[in-house]
Specification:
- The chain is of the alpha/beta class.
- Helices cover about 45% and strands about 10% of the residues.
- The N terminus and C terminus are likely disordered.
- It binds adenosine-5'-triphosphate and magnesium ion.
Length: about 400
């Protein structure tokens, strides 16, 4: 069962305890949740020799980027503290690796409260969630990862817990069954999801704050790479950090992962400071291209281009053609390709955009509107010649 209590026994040890708390989150049983993330996002990133947890920022001030989110949360924290209340329930959503779990742990640190961490697929039976809720200490944060995967029974237990701080349990069976209300301590539910759209409306409506995490800018990722390199005691110069940042798909987890791979390369091949040249050579070796696309990204796009003439192609068809899981494509690969404008979503399916064609070395087809424009420009009198052939 993937439930971890992090409430420190001595409140003064709270901050010191936090990294250990965070480390405990990775004990989540992968068997209980085989689709938590793709292998590329978990195993490779969570290097056992250097657990991700030691790299997590511990305070809001240390948390790079996400300015809007931080501004909103700073106000919420300040107001809750001033009123000596617990924070309102918060839903954090966005693609994997952008810092949702990190932020939940920081919220607990900033509020100086305990944090219980679980993931929705671990809350299979009603007693799982009931046990968690009744054991919360005043002000605790309950962090539920992948909250869109909560089952209906667990959700219905959460509704009154979130709204009225009580749960209703049925005792006994048949005609002697009675419903009893159990009062709960004030608590904050922090939910994280990569698919906010899959949350049911009643659950979503019970969060006081619904916040999206966005992809990071290159300068923000450069700062993150520099910070991680210092924690790993790896010498790197500014251009080296920026090169890794540019190829990190706007995602801190990927930035940290690429840094570790470049560090390996640098250690073995040159044994010196990571420079632009070293970062570039190493990342090319690991097949991470200048836009940060890896082998799978390129395969998805080239499949759409070669087999479906750029699309539209349905998600399931694309999944079958590439051998990738549809959910993984949708949650892990697609968001960044949409963000950089290499993929577009239409009601008929996914379309590889002209920038994607060009990035992969293909010549994009000319759209019908452009064709007629060209035909007018190149040969205004002729209705039979085909100027497109000349252009192509
Ligand atoms: N703002 C940030 N500043 C510095 N490092 C960060 C930041 N956000 C995330 N990281 C780093 O990226 C890693 C991944 O972050 P985190 O686990 O919080 O992502 P997540 O959004 O919860 O991902 P998932 O959806 O996969 O659970 C962390 O270990 C941390 O080191
Ligand atoms: Mg997480």
């Amino acid at each position: 069962m993937a439930i971890v209590s992090s409430k420190p026994s001595n409140p003064s040890d709270d901050r010191n305890d936090r990294p250990a708390t965070a480390a405990a989150t990775t004990t989540t049983d992968p068997q209980a949740d085989p689709t938590l993330l793709t292998a590329s996002e978990t195993d490779a990133d969570r290097d056992p020799a250097q657990p991700d947890e030691t790299l997590r920022p511990q305070s809001l001030a240390d948390y790079t980027g996400q300015k809007d989110l931080k501004a909103v949360l700073e106000i919420a924290i300040g107001a809750a503290k001033a009123r000596s209340e617990s924070l309102d329930h918060i839903l954090l959503y966005g693609p994997p690796g952008l810092g949702k779990t990190t932020m939940a742990l920081i919220l607990a640190t900033e509020m100086n409260v305990g944090c219980k961490i679980t993931t929705a697929p671990a809350l299979e039976r009603p007693r799982d969630i009931v046990g968690l809720l009744v054991n919360l200490q005043p002000g605790d944060i309950l962090f539920i990862d992948e909250i869109h995967r909560l089952n209906r029974v667990a959700e219905e237990i959460l509704y009154p817990a979130m709204e009225d701080r009580r749960i209703d349990v049925t005792i006994g069976k048949g005609s002697s069954a009675r419903t009893r209300s159990i009062a709960l301590e004030p608590f904050t539910l922090v939910g994280a999801t990569t698919k906010a759209g899959s949350l049911t409306a009643p659950l979503r409506a019970r969060f006081g704050l619904v916040q999206r995490l966005r992809f990071y800018e290159v300068d923000e990722l450069t700062a993150i790479v520099t910070r991680t390199a210092a924690l790993l005691e790896t010498p790197i110069d500014a251009d080296g950090s920026a090169e890794i940042a540019r190829r990190s798909r706007g995602t801190p987890r990927i930035a940290n992962r690429l840094l570790k791979r470049v560090r390996d390369y640098s250690q073995v091949k040159v044994d010196g400071t990571i420079t632009l040249e070293i970062a570039r050579t190493a990342l090319e070796l690991f097949e991470v291209d200048p836009m940060g696309l890896d082998w799978t990204d390129r395969r998805l796009l080239s499949m759409a281009i070669e087999q479906f003439n750029g699309g539209p192609v349905g998600l399931e068809t694309l999944a079958a053609a590439t051998g990738e899981d549809a959910q993984t494509i949708e949650e892990v690969y697609e968001p960044y390709l949409l963000q950089i404008g290499y993929l577009a979503r239409t009601h008929r399916g996914r379309v590889a955009t002209p920038s994607a064609w060009r990035h992969l070395g293909y010549t994009p087809p000319i759209a019908p509107a452009q064709k007629s424009q060209l035909s007018l420009t190149l040969d205004p009198d002729s209705s039979t010649s085909n100027p497109i052939d000349e252009v192509n």
